[in-house]
Amino acid sequence: MGPPRSxxxxxxxxxxxxxxxxxxxxxxxxxxxxxxxxxxxHPSTADAVRGxxxxxxxxGRPPPVCPEDxxxxxxxxxxxxxxxxPFTAPWWMWQVPTAAFALTVAVLVSLTQRSTPxxxxxxxxxxxxxxxxxxxxxxxxSDGPLGIVLPLLDMVAAALLxxxxxxxxxxxxxxxxLPAAWLAFAFGAAGTALAxxxxxxxxxxxxxxxxxxxxxxxxxxxxxxxALALAGMSVVTYGAxxxxxxxxxxxxxxxxxxxxxxxxxAGVLEAVDVAVAVHVPGRxxxxxxxxxxxxxxMESESGPLVFGPDRVTPVPxxxxxxxxxxxGQTFAGLLQWVGEPGDQVAAVCxxxxxxxxxxxxxxxxxxxxxxxxxxxxxxxxEEFLGTVSHELRTPLxxxxxxxxxxxxxxxxxxxxxxxxxxHLTVIRRNAVALHERVEQLLNVARAEDDALRLxxxxxxxxxxxxxxxxxxxAERAGLRVVASIPPTLQARVDxxxxxxxxxxxxxxAVKYTADGHIDVSVERPPGSGCHSGFVLRVADTGCGMSExxxxxxxxxxxxxxxxxxxxxxxxxxxxxxxxxxxxxxGGTIAVDSLPGDGTTFVVTVP
Length: 606
Fold this sequence. Notes:
- This protein has four domains: 118 residues, no CATH class; 156 residues, no CATH class; 74 residues, Helix Hairpins (Orthogonal Bundle), CATH 1.10.287; 154 residues, Histidine kinase-like ATPase, C-terminal domain (Heat Shock Protein 90, 2-Layer Sandwich), CATH 3.30.565.10.
- It contains 19 helices and 15 strands.
């Protein structure tokens, strides 16, 4: 469902797009109050809603939501299960300190052990650690299932270093600490078992290499206790990884639930034909697209263009809908007209406060419903009833009055034929006027229901016939008619529809021109061939119309200000009939008019 047409801002070049700046902070970032009924959900409503709950820092306006996110169905969103993969850390967080420690131990072993085999073993361990560090740079290895090989190779390097240390202190055993923790943290229970076994193997490396077993209880404790400590550390590390994985899964689940709420809220805000804004102090306001359009309508250098129910009286700033909402008021059904005079829309506003006075999440929701079409329909109905009652009652009252006079004259025995004929002439004239009014009302229905009967006719002849019917009325009004019509112009058209079009345009020209002239022309469209359409132009030097009146000229029962002020007869349906007929013929009608400078209608039928 598209947004109501009346929210759009019309310019000479078409519909103006909403501005790309913060609804509440203007172009330069300075604080601005949110005007009536507009509530600041920008083009990317989903991102704006997400901004109310997100704790991530943001620079500028959030980027638009991608189409895939917007089109995701509820079933797809709820079907996504939160990840339960173990919480992992990058390989280099384990490998860098392991490599540094191992290289340091290798240097110490080289300095303390003078034997060639010990030196060769230290070099081999060093090379192995370097190979693991370089291999970790491959994402296929470090992030794949073979990633467990990296800490295992580090354990082998630790065993080589600890075994080559000879009678060195048990501190060389600590080289296997970080690889053991890596196995337990990143590879679950299997990794933990390998870590415990690896620690035991590293601790036994000196004895497997031919060293003597500890002879005293103290020496045995020096070997066993560090190994037990490292094995216990591996088990604790595995438990910590499980706790972190569970916490991660819970965060993912809550994040996905929040994302679903964001998408749902954004969808609702954009789907409703209501301008909606949600404001929480200190957070980015949320405004849907209709709210943004309405806000642009009310912007002006002198302040928000907000008027009361009479469409004329400006609404004081403290009584405008958004300020009442900001002041903590709750209301419903508040009617305020928004926009430049003559191009206003009716916003029926409601506001609701949520959260308590001490609640950090307190705020307000403001909604504005576009009631322009409804109120215009009510106005048109009232004007129609008033116009019809006047247009029908006036000739009918005259007919009845002169009938009574004529009846009294005949009953009194007076036989003044001249007087009786005068009375009958007045009666006839008003009866004809009454008949014309009824015909005008019926023509509206006929224009909709009558099927077109297209055939090749002489358009020039039809327009000349219509001119003949209106020439007397134009001469009585002191108007000069200038016709530029070719001898013949053939086109495929419905002759009845064309006659109604020409008749209504000429009637309007005569009716609304006090003095001057009326120009009528018929011609072939540029570049067209035989029977391929025509252009009918009717121009007058009458009172003209304002820009607002031009916009409403083809609406049923609409009457311009000059018609009501100068008491010009009519029901305001002639141009509506013309527009319907032109559309039915597949043509267009254009209007060029200025107040006091006349009006030109151009009908083009292809």
